[in-house]
Amino acid sequence: HFYLMVVCSNKFVKHGSKRPIPPSCFPMFPRSERQMPPPAAAADWSGVHQDILSRIFLSLACIGDRVRFSAVNQQWRGVALQNPPPLPWLLMPSTAGTSCHRIFGGFADPQPPLAGAVRGARFCGSSPGGWSVVVLHQWHGHALLNLRSGERVPLPDHVRVTLNGGRAPPNFNVIRCPIMVRAAAVSAPPPSAACVVAALTTGQTTMAFWRPGMDCWSPAPLGAPCDAQDLTYHDGCFWAVNPWEQLFCYKPEIAGADGALTVQHLVYQCCADQMTPPAPGEIVSRYLLPAASGEDLLMVKRFIDPARGGTRRFEVFRLEKQLGRTSWRLYKMEGQVLFVGRSCSKAFDTGRSGNPGYIYFLDDVYGGRPMSVLQQNEYPCTDMGGWSCSPDDEEIKRCLPWAHPSDSSPSIWYLH
């Protein structure tokens, strides 16, 4: 409780009391001395030392708080731009040059530097730390590329395939076949001993694995996903999803003195609870990513109607495993912002648990089967933007920068 205490006949009078306070209770000062002092001038926050501001900014876990921090004044905005949060940057590659835009801070701000930018490369995925899987030439030249340092780790262009189930003579049961990667995920950055690359491919196999020291990709076990739409790494496993919501789980294991790579394989026939069917003419595309907490695996369904201008809406589901039953359960997206793209999706906690979530998406869906990404003469950059999970505001926002179609690669989220 707040009390206004007035000295009156050696007693305290509670604020709000109906008892009148006699004038004699006030000291007899001239009127000018009894006036309230002028309000204090607003504090000048522009003089705070930059190192202190940087510590304050980096301690803010909430994205919204960081946005408000950057809006205080020009000095604070400069500190925010010098200490970018882990939000991904929008990477738009082409033969003419690769442009990179900050989502946080505004698209008009100076573009972040890219140490390892490669013109004409096709980007197949991105992982934290600045690593991306790229194809440097049209049909060959796979590599792990770090856009922060410029470091490049060559990846094989062939996969080792066993014929006739391994029943042929030892010298004749293995052949090397060309491979084309269309999407890829990384478990840990090189040169970590835990580094494994998983890729959705075309050719003699639809999925393959590689780790440092291997001269060829290793095909996935029998039952590899056909027409898988996306791939991610979560909880020690690689996960892929196909158009029927089947979930394929691959757990890599490195054993022996030679570091041999083996892969355990599981297929989940997921029940589809509370899913709405697509409207006539709609295309459905799917993305996989861990939730911001890291605990749940999410599937984002994107509904696209080419006749009505592109993306119309989204649905988000959480993988639930209970009593031997695996299902996709409708996920209430609150307090998170999702950036979805092929093998480059990422979720972030906004610190506002009760607020509707938000999804940023890229133009990376093409007609036909998922491998049609390899058959494009150009990659449009028009069907991209944002979508609020609020039922009161589900309109698609075209809030990402426009660009001419790329002649080399779809846009991706660069997880720096």
From TrEMBL:
Domain KIB1-4 beta-propeller as annotated: residue spans: 114-371
InterPro entries (alphabetical): KIB1-4_b-propeller
Top-level taxon of origin: Eukaryota
Protein name: KIB1-4 beta-propeller domain-containing protein
Natural source organism: Aegilops tauschii subsp. strangulata
